[in-house]
Amino acid sequence: MSDNWIEVGSLNDIPQQGARVVQTEKGDIAVFRTVDDELFALRDKCPHRGGPLSQGIVHGKRVACPLHDWKINLANGEAVAPDEGCTTSFPVKLEGERVMLSLAANKGCAGN
Q1: Confidence band (pLDDT; 50, 70, 90) for 1?
Q2: What's the CATH code of the domain at 44?
Q3: Which structural domain range is residue 65 located in?
Q4: Please, are residues 101 and 29 in contact by the beta-carbon 8 Å criterion?
């Protein structure tokens, strides 16, 4: 299972309240960093119309899609009510200053 983890850069490569896109064989994955330096990873595709979540604004543990302002929960990829839908989330962790991303999707939302 450890071979599913890839290094995607250092913590400082991702702006606080922003994201960095990682291109993988599974598609583009956005790695988000909150103001508290928490890390989350989602498929870079809003469940509504496929907007690039990586270009959205991070507020707390949510990101607002830049196309239609849908709020997506960073922890699980689910849209915040009243909107419905979800995008795939991926495990991400910090090892020292290195950001590590797992290409094995989290269970739960089938996503898009």
Answers
A1: very low
A2: 2.102.10.10
A3: 2-102
A4: yes
